[in-house]
Amino acid sequence: MPRTEDQYEQIRESKKKLIMDTALELFANQGYYPTSISIIAKKAGISKGLLYNYFKSKEDLIKEIINQGIDELFETFDPDRDGVLTEDEFDYLVHENFRLIKNNIQHWKLFFAISMQPPVFKVVKERIGEFMPKYINIMAKYYNKRGVSNPVTEALFFGAVMDGVSLNYVADPDKFPLEEITQKIIDVFSHKNSQKEQNEKNK
Length: 203
Fold this sequence. Notes:
Blueprint: H1 5-30, H2 37-44, H3 48-54, H4 58-74, H5 87-103, H6 105-115, H7 118-145, H8 151-171, H9 178-189, H10 194-202
Helix pairs in contact: 1-2, 1-6, 4-7, 5-8, 5-9, 7-8, 8-9
């Protein structure tokens, strides 16, 4: 029987994932510049021509890998997309961010490794630059509502801590106390009591 459109789409997505996973591993272990399209195709067990059916170039491939990874992490932020971060959503983004990394640690170890390579970092910086204004706006409103004296600085500090914890965890997951650190981040950065304390002061 001929394949259905859904079956063709599943095959296509499977091939695309194979290419991206293979490229991610090679870029991380061998470096972006030394890894050619030919090397990726050979490692994936497909022809170079077939690979070009999915990606126009190596640059197109690395952009897709980076954008997909960053988008996956960004999905944990403001899940209902209303531009307002609640305390429950704050807890969710911290837990979900680390859950994604913990559940596929090898992938994220490779992802963070290629993100630090100079030619790839340009793509990372560009993608994050698109998201940052939205992030700062929402986080600043969250902290401002809770009476934090410098909401923007607090938002940037929180983001830097999340990045640092993620990198430390993938570097040594067996010895890094992720659950305890997760709760510590929520205790320190959620400022759940700040609004109540501010209301008490204003009485």
